[in-house]
Amino acid sequence: MTATLPSEVTATQALVQPALREAVGELRPAMRRIVSYHLGWTDEHGEPRSSGGGKALRPALALLAAQAVRAEPEAALPGAVAVELVHNFSLLHDDVMDGDTERRHRPTVWRLFGTPAAILAGDALLTLAVDVVERAGDPAATRCLTGSVHHLIEGQSADVDFEGRLDVGLQECLDMADGKTGALMRCAAQVGALLGRASPVAAQLLADFGGNLGMAFQLVDDLLGIWGSPEVTGKPVLADLRVRKKSVPVVAALDSRTADGARLRELYGRTDPPTEEELHTMAELIERSGALAWTRDRAQRYVAQAQTCLDRLHPPPPIHAALTDLTRFVLERDR
Amino acid sequence: MTATLPSEVTATQALVQPALREAVGELRPAMRRIVSYHLGWTDEHGEPRSSGGGKALRPALALLAAQAVRAEPEAALPGAVAVELVHNFSLLHDDVMDGDTERRHRPTVWRLFGTPAAILAGDALLTLAVDVVERAGDPAATRCLTGSVHHLIEGQSADVDFEGRLDVGLQECLDMADGKTGALMRCAAQVGALLGRASPVAAQLLADFGGNLGMAFQLVDDLLGIWGSPEVTGKPVLADLRVRKKSVPVVAALDSRTADGARLRELYGRTDPPTEEELHTMAELIERSGALAWTRDRAQRYVAQAQTCLDRLHPPPPIHAALTDLTRFVLERDR
């Protein structure tokens, strides 16, 4: 099954894309060239590409959050652009840190233009994100953004730290996921609410909606990192197990006190690259330990919690429907 | 001759250091540990060190700029802390990009804690800098800071780009130096002036003072990178020539249309590591081409321009004297 983005989400692109291009246009030429490649707007020679870009879920969430509190989507545009810039800052730096050579079926920036270019382009996007949100003139929005960046850094730092450890607990793994993904989705919804002049209660409900949606998103990402279809995700089969990543389903299995979990621990403790047979064994062990079902169930619970926030908020019906569709997309997506 | 920092500059440390520690204390533990090591406050095990830290010229400049327009130094404190955080963000990332293994006679962060830790700690400091300046409640100060970061990134990007080129022109090399060092020194003085509620004319004079001082600082740095005493600078003898860096004196020599410049170009065009004999030849060629004298003269001219800004500003006499001493220190320093 291929889940498609709700039309209200794709409709926000018509507002977000020009604003994003305008912001990136402020960068000096050297950085603009790298960023345009990273965003899928140009190829490695700087020639325009017809398609490109990611799902742009975060800016859509910001615009829908403003509409949920009955503001015009335009009010949230600086926040929407800023969160998308922060998201891409983190992708540029994460690809360097993780040594990932491909993203969205194309060579990563560090791979093509070198590590310094990727670090500097990330730095430039983080700074530009602050510029854009600061101009909206709402200090709470700026603080929401920088607070989420600190969270993001904390999450990525934990992720790196986990690499050298076999004793990662499930709670700290969920905290890491909250930092890596929950924080910026929470910020996207909250910044949209703030710029839409939401009441404190409504802003908090939207922040919680975004945070829960983000956690569900990350858990589904972790499942796709093991069981996703390579031709769809653009990642190798069993990608996360290949690098012995401590993603949520893996840690849930390691932490399961089952014989399958113990056997997985033994395979994860080895240092030589896993064979194809070992990879499939790992995936089976995770499934048999109950961790696959647990992760899927947990993702559904996060979505249910997001739904509860939404129901308490009483947004206009079309926006309620769009945000509900968004939670469904996050659960059912295959890429 | 060892130039010492003017007492008014070192006196600002009493204000800056506690504020800097308070800001860094806001970071989460993992980042705080890395940053405390980088700033020289702790050793690699997290144990406190008695000495530490750099010259902290930039925060001193911010506080003196506020005093130059007859404000209390405390008014500029958020700006002072923010520029010092930005400076250290750039050092952390530059050390990764340049592959430098030592800073201030200690292993660099990436060398000790890994590249991801250095990238993330830099990201955290940049974000923290924005937090600190934003709280001062003056949008112009925040914009001054982020504007200087974009300049800084541009300068570092040019520096990286120059590595693969032999045709670097003198003007673009000076522009690069202005980005790498001029911009943040300009911002330090300007942000101090802005937070000290300077008139637009006074703020501009102080910005120009800082920018000129920064250029002089960078040119002296470039001279020390070739002729500095290793036991004082903590860098290997003829350090910049070893890596065939396109610093200002080098580019001035390459660009000199002299036989010495042509011979240097030939040595710089080689790809194998230079021998000790070649290193000394390079240094001699730069001197004989007139580029050493030119660079020294140019540094003096920047300082003279800074002095002109100061004279037009008419700050209180003790502040005039302190800022004058600062320009002298920048010219005469040996580290």
Automatic annotation (TrEMBL), chains A, B:
Pfam families: polyprenyl_synt (PF00348)
InterPro entries tied to this protein: Isoprenoid_synthase_dom_sf (IPR008949), Polyprenyl_synt (IPR000092), Polyprenyl_synt_CS (IPR033749)
PROSITE patterns attached to this UniProt entry: POLYPRENYL_SYNTHASE_1 (PS00723), POLYPRENYL_SYNTHASE_2 (PS00444)
Gene Ontology biological process: isoprenoid biosynthetic process
SUPFAM superfamilies, A to Z: Terpenoid synthases
Keyword Ligase among UniProt keywords: no
Record keywords: Magnesium, Metal-binding, Transferase
MF-aspect GO terms: metal ion binding; prenyltransferase activity
Entries under PANTHER family matching the protein: (2E,6E)-FARNESYL DIPHOSPHATE SYNTHASE, GERANYLGERANYL PYROPHOSPHATE SYNTHASE
Homology family: Belongs to the FPP/GGPP synthase family.
Annotated protein name in UniProt: Dimethylallyltranstransferase
Biological source species: Prauserella muralis
